[in-house]
Amino acid sequence: MPLKLFELVGTDEARPFSPFCWRTRMALAHKGLDAESIPWRFTEKEAIAPHKSDKVPVLLDDETAVADSWTIAVYLEDAYPDRPSLFGGEGGRAMGRMMNWWGDVAVVGGMFPLIIADIPGHLAPVDAAYFRKTREARFGKPLEQVAAARDKSVEGFRRALDPLRLTLKSQPFIGGTRPNYADYIVFGPFQWARVVSPFQLLAEDDPVYAWRERLLDAFDGMARKSPGYQV
Amino acid sequence: MPLKLFELVGTDEARPFSPFCWRTRMALAHKGLDAESIPWRFTEKEAIAPHKSDKVPVLLDDETAVADSWTIAVYLEDAYPDRPSLFGGEGGRAMGRMMNWWGDVAVVGGMFPLIIADIPGHLAPVDAAYFRKTREARFGKPLEQVAAARDKSVEGFRRALDPLRLTLKSQPFIGGTRPNYADYIVFGPFQWARVVSPFQLLAEDDPVYAWRERLLDAFDGMARKSPGYQV
């Protein structure tokens, strides 16, 4: 029985977004595993409730349901040990936990205010209303106000990428000569942004831009082929 | 021939500081290697010039001189492969490069303005003058002004530790159940601060505080035994 992956989509089922689902997509590709995509929308909580989650990604592997992108990565590493390693050993797995938090805080968290106002336009009315209500409660203001100064505030986001930028001076990927899960942790959010927003997060002469290009090319251009803005 | 390590000191030779030298000290202890300490002061450039460096740490291993804490860690991992691993595999080594930059930018860089004004008091006059001149040029103002608002600006430093703080929710060390070089990358700066400054960088109920305590206890309390403030 093939793997199945609940993935966040909006009105276009061929346009999966969510930084976390993209981490899992890249991890599956890294392991050389196919997964049937099950499109899922913000308000379809009941579709994943049987799998004990209210968020995606949720991976179904035969009788096993696994929720949360980090938990899925660890599951895939353990369940498919003969496939290429996502972590490159125990040290990488342990450090990967912190890379994942850095990715959540600095990358997802830093990017979210910059692209948030572009998201409702990709959603059906019921999902757009849900998204706007829950996220405006979180930020305490309208989405358009959150994103208003993004031409300026993008500078702080770019600066926060310095640890990645400096790493790329001596190696093409966080994983070294080839990407590993640490790269997908950071790339997932960039792919999310690319799918939903025309906003330019990176300057073209930024080494992080070139790194993102390499990951767009990975796995026969899987991420690049997915519908998105050319940014 | 035993290993030798040039370490930064001030007026008290028994009080080595420098975040980078402490990374190396912890790495040597992790590998179970002894090293003879060679005290070195900021203005003693000629003492290390033959080893093609103008900064410490510089490690001497028989005929081999290795400068820069990251380069030393990689050297030790390769030269002493039968000793406990610093990186836990190739993935950890590759991700460690980015952890090192995160440590330099967020931890050393975030901490420096907070403790900088306390450093000259630990230095001989010639070194204090050198330190003040070079660092005031870097910050563009007197050291005392750099540190002036530290009771307030420490909050930003603490927030920047969120990726570590969140990681510690599920594991006691960045390296997992035991510390590895990623822990020493971040601990080195904390030990530097502890040696030179009475300023309290961490709240006592912070999980990062408890993590630092665990590393102060590591290797039979090596770092705790070194003279420092009780902060």
Task: List the keywords.
homodimer, 231 residues, alpha+beta, 4-stranded mixed sheet, 10 helices
List the helices and strands and how they pair.
The structure is a homodimer.
Chain A (H helix, E strand, L loop, with lengths): L2 E6 L10 H12 L4 E6 L4 H4 L9 E4 L2 E4 L1 H11 L10 H26 L9 H15 L3 H4 L3 H11 L1 H6 L13 H16 L10 H19 L6
Parallel strand pairs in A: 1-2
Antiparallel strand pairs in A: 1-3, 3-4
What does the model show?
Two copies of one chain form a homodimer. Chain A has 231 residues and is of the alpha+beta class. Chain A has ten helices and four strands. In chain A, strand 1, helix 1 (19-30) and strand 2 form a beta-alpha-beta unit. The longest helix of chain A is centred in the middle third of the chain and has 26 residues, at 90-115. Chain A is globular. The N and C termini of chain A lie far apart (37 Å). The model of chain A has no long low-confidence stretch (mean pLDDT 97). The interface between A and B is medium-sized, with 32 and 32 residues.
Given the helix and strand composition of chain A, which structural class is it? Answer: alpha+beta
The Cα radius of gyration of chain A reads 17 Å
Quaternary class: homodimer
Range of strand content of chain A: 5-15%
